[in-house]
TrEMBL record:
Keyword Mitochondrion assigned: yes
GO BP field: L-valine catabolic process
Protein name, UniProt field: 3-hydroxyisobutyryl-CoA hydrolase
Record's subcellular location: Mitochondrion
Family note: Belongs to the enoyl-CoA hydratase/isomerase family.
Organism: Rhinolophus ferrumequinum (Greater horseshoe bat)
Enoyl-CoA hydratase/isomerase domain segment(s): 44-334
Pathway: Amino-acid degradation; L-valine degradation
Keywords: Branched-chain amino acid catabolism, Hydrolase, Mitochondrion
Principal EC category: hydrolase
Cross-referenced SUPFAM superfamilies: ClpP/crotonase
Tree of life domain: Eukaryota
Upper lineage: Eukaryota, Metazoa, Chordata, Craniata, Vertebrata
Gene Ontology CC: mitochondrion
InterPro entries hit by this protein: ClpP/crotonase-like_dom_sf (IPR029045), ECH_dom (IPR045004), HIBYL-CoA-H (IPR032259)
Amino acid sequence: MRLWELMARFNSFKRTNVILQHLRMSNHTDAAGEVLLERKGCAGVITLNRPKFLNALNLSMVRQIYPQLKKWEQDPETFLIIIKGVGGKAFCAGGDIRAVSEAAKANQKLSQEFFREEYMLNNAIDSCQKPYVALIHGITMGGGVGLSVHGHFRVATEKSLFAMPETAIGLFPDVGGGYFLPRLQGKLGYFLAFTGFRLKGRDVYTAGIATHFVDSEKLSMLEADLLALKSPSKENIADVLDTYHTKSKIDQNKPFILEEHLDKINSWFSANSVEQIIEILQQDGSSFALEQLKAINKMSPTSLKITLRQLMEGSSKTLQEVLTMEYRLSQACMF
């Protein structure tokens, strides 16, 4: 029995150390290679380099990106900032939330640091004085949305996949979700937050998440054209993006996937409580309403309540105020 207890304690200690090692800022070459920060042409280029993990964002990456972003913002030779992901499957599939939540049980400070520093980076992207271009090719969820949606320009492709799936894991759509979601057309943001509904391709642009849509095969050419600009203004950068956007023909005439349901979405999610929303969906009885009800019933009830309040409050707050609120919420959800 004594030996079993010692083994159990050793395994617990070992697991805790693995989690802490995963989150702690490391000088290991792997950590340094998780994000590439390069000056190319007229731009600073941030490349998320964890393709095996769909470029999921961890604390060491945040700690490398934030100071470099600030340096480039002050550098007179850097005229724009580009952020992209490696591997073709994902821009960034989110934050390493599982590691953070497990670490919370072992070391409260680490989960505080991850959320605080991630949200500081989100705010720095929003306030960045240099044009910021996010190439959101592939999966863009959670933390990946935070790295892109607050920037000046967000370029989607036919392979873009957007979602805020946090209500399914006992959290809420953070990284400024309380700010940008209620500012989408009608109650679309509430619908996306509640259901985790996935928007694909041109729909990411139509919904207002992306500012431009470009064929994926033209993405490297677009990047090269941006890098080749000489001392560009924000308007020069917008002109290049607009040109590529206009030339893109993929799904050009395809209606928005939620087009026929927008009036109902606006009506359903105008209710003031989760219970009312569920009741209205049940009363509606249409196949689309029942499909959303089925999705909502799989979510954490607490998360749904928090999310509704978060979005209602966030609709009249600044991004900084929302991020402060979301940091407090994140810590309440962790423990």
